[in-house]
Design a protein that fits this description.
single chain, mainly alpha, 85 residues, 0% strand
Amino acid sequence: MNNNDFLQIRTLNDIYVRKNELRRDLKSQEAQLIMDWNAIKSQYAQLTTWQQNINHILSKQRLGLFSFFRIGIKTAQLILHWLKR
């Protein structure tokens, strides 16, 4: 085996090692994306529930402007709290 053969084997080994590193990184990123997507789905479901609750309250009662304004502020605070997470 000459020096050129040794360099080719080393280069192939480096490529193989790098490919495995990239594969691990990709799997890790995929897992993070799945967790992020599940969190987004959960947050969307919660927002939908809040919206339905507010719509229910508004449809069942005649709220004064002040009460309606308070609900809007509370909803905005909850949304901001979620966005900060």
